[in-house]
Design brief:
- It is a single chain.
- The protein has 273 residues and is α+β, with helices and mostly antiparallel strands.
- The chain has 9 helices and 11 strands.
- The chain has helices at residues 11-15, 42-49, 56-60, 73-87, 120-123, 138-152, 170-174, 187-198, 253-265, and strands at residues 22-27, 35-39, 64-69, 102-108, 113-119, 131-135, 212-218, 221-228, 231-237, 242-245, 269-272.
- It has a 5-stranded antiparallel beta sheet with strand order 10-9-8-7-11. A 3-stranded antiparallel beta sheet has the order 2-1-3.
- Strand 1 and strand 2 (35-39) form a beta hairpin.
- Helix 4 (73-87) packs antiparallel against helix 9.
């Protein structure tokens, strides 16, 4: 094991680091935190930082570490994402800003299914069905559609990515399109491949009638993380009897990524709010 890198954190602080889940904050001499992270074992993760060459500059400026324990991993992930957006730590490159998102929406037209790239606000993410992918720009969504067209031999004209001429789309000439644009392939067969190609990118609609609590427990310590429409609203803590409220400006991709898998797979305890 490599020796620890140079840092200004006293031995007592390191010795007192907890072994459970939570968030840790590296602080220097200035008002902004240097780095915010999370782990299911705060002590082990912080000690690993001290031996990471790529973090030498951050460690050299570190003077103290604050810790906020949580009852479970979901609470640590939600708190980390929230604090990074609020506090703008100098050495965090992820999760720093609320992102304006767009997605692919499938709409039924007279001839068949038509993909449309729409903003997250317009699409009502969390409510509407037939939404696929979450992208940081229209260009990124278009690039993804083009890649799917090439992989599954879909018509880029029918996907709205190019014009269809009298002789069909450009892909038909290159033999990357099976001809749905000129009637060589049934439109239903084309659309079936389109829906199958998009399936792994589906954005799940909120599966509950209203707000719910995701419950995490460690011994007699309970935390209840309230969510509605994939938006994180706050956490109630049994140790303090208080609720830490959170008011996001809208759908947040980071929150969605944190909670969608445990919610949809049923690996977290869910109770009606």
């Amino acid at each position: 094991m490599p020796p620890p890198l140079a840092h200004g954190i006293d031995a007592g602080t390191l010795e007192a680091l907890p072994r459970g889940p939570g968030v840790y904050i590296f602080r220097g001499e200035g008002p902004l935190p240097l780095y915010i992270g999370k782990s299911v074992d705060i002590r082990a993760r912080v000690l690993a930082h001290l031996r990471t060459e790529d973090e030498a500059e951050m460690l050299a400026r570190s003077r103290h570490i604050d810790c906020i324990e949580t009852a479970g991993e979901i609470g640590a992930l939600l708190l980390e994402a929230q604090l990074i957006k609020q506090m703008h730590p100098l050495f965090n490159v992820r999760l720093r800003r609320w992102r304006q998102l767009c997605c692919i929406r499938l709409q039924a037209g007279e001839a068949g299914w038509q993909p449309d790239i729409v903003s997250g606000r317009e699409a009502q993410i969390g409510h509407a069905p037939e939404l696929y992918g979450l992208f940081g720009s229209v260009r990124a969504a278009q690039q993804r559609l083009r890649a799917l067209a090439d992989q599954h031999r879909l018509c880029q004209g029918l996907l709205g990515l190019e014009n269809i001429g009298a002789r069909g789309c450009f892909g038909l000439q290159l033999k990357t399109c099976l001809g749905a644009c000129v009637g060589r392939e049934p439109r239903g067969a084309h659309d079936e491949r389109l829906r199958a190609a998009l399936q792994d990118m589906q954005v799940h609609a909120w599966p509950f009638a209203g707000a719910v609590d995701l419950v995490e427990q460690s011994g007699d310590w309970v935390q209840r993380h309230r969510l509605q429409d994939w938006r994180y609203l706050g956490t109630w803590c049994s140790r303090t009897g208080q609720t830490h409220s959170h008011a996001p400006p809208g759908f947040d991709l980071d929150t969605y990524k944190i909670v969608v898998k445990p919610v949809m797979m049923g690996t977290v305890r869910v109770q009606a709010a």
